[in-house]
């Protein structure tokens, strides 16, 4: 599976949830009480605690290619998944692609082509051309803030690397990660210096996660927002 890995500038509407980030520099304040250590990893499990992710799960607005071996007239070099999660394929018509992997979707196309009597023993390969549905926002004290596609398993350190690393004034021992879980906004903080040294696990990110470096220097409006986020308790224990 191949996909374009490209930087996407943060559009204006994304800053609605990142209000106050522009006031990072020059503000000093007491760090926020967000989950850390064991409590943080209870919300954002480390890589080794999660089931292996073999392939990218397709979603609305992703672009795929469908190659039917020795059948160019049935193949499609570029198909965009619509907002409902469907694509229109030659011969078989509309099929749902959202929510499954490229490999699984290829198997479904093979079944449709053979079951409908169109082809005998078709071999179908589905590739991801452009990932849109699964992205992570990286903001704060990084060199290139933006929205980046997740084309496979992606960790917190991966996201920092995609944004060209942290700035010289970043507080890398307090990096916030935000995620919607069961309809609620959750947050936790991580020490990426300790993660780089191998002293703490590297948390796995998911689509639509937001990473903010140096969050404890945000403006008062952003800090007020953070204080409303559901958290487990007041957190100060180290991770063991």
What CATH first level of the largest domain would be assigned?
Alpha Beta
Q: State the end-to-end CA separation.
A: 37 Å
Radius of gyration (CA) equals: 21 Å
How is the CATH topology of the largest domain named? Outer membrane lipoprotein wza fold like
Which strand order does the major sheet show?
7-6-10-8-9
CATH architecture of the largest domain: Roll
What summary fits the major beta sheet?
5 strands, mixed
Report the count of strand segments: 10
CATH superfamily of the largest domain: Outer membrane lipoprotein wza domain like
Q: β content, as a range?
A: 15-25%
Regions with pLDDT < 50 over 5+ consecutive residues? 1-30, 49-54, 231-240
| Overall shape | elongated
Instruction: Return the string of H and E elements.
Output: HEEEEHEEEHEEHEH
The structure class reads alpha+beta
Let me know the average pLDDT: 75
């Amino acid at each position: 599976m191949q996909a374009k890995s490209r930087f996407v500038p943060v559009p204006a509407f994304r800053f609605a949830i990142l209000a106050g980030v522009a006031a990072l520099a020059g503000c000093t304040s007491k760090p926020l009480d967000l989950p850390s250590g064991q409590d943080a990893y209870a919300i954002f499990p480390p890589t080794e605690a999660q089931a292996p992710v073999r392939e990218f799960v397709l979603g609305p607005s992703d672009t795929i290619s469908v190659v039917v071996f020795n059948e160019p007239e049935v193949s499609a070099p570029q198909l965009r998944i619509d907002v409902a999660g469907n694509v229109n394929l030659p011969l078989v018509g509309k099929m749902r692609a959202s929510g499954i992997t490229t490999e699984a979707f290829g198997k479904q196309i093979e079944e449709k082509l053979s079951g409908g009597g169109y082809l005998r023993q078709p071999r179908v390969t589905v590739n991801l051309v452009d990932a849109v549905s699964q992205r992570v926002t990286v903001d704060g004290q990084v060199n290139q803030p933006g929205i980046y596609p997740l084309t496979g398993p992606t960790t917190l350190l991966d996201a920092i690397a995609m944004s060209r690393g942290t700035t010289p004034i970043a507080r890398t021992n307090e990096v916030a990660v935000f995620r919607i879980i069961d309809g609620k906004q959750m947050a936790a903080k991580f020490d990426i210096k300790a993660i780089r040294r191998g002293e703490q696990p590297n948390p796995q990110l998911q689509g639509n996660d937001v990473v903010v470096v140096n969050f404890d220097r945000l403006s008062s409006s952003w800090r007020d927002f953070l204080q409303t986020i559901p958290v487990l308790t007041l957190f100060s224990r180290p991770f063991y």
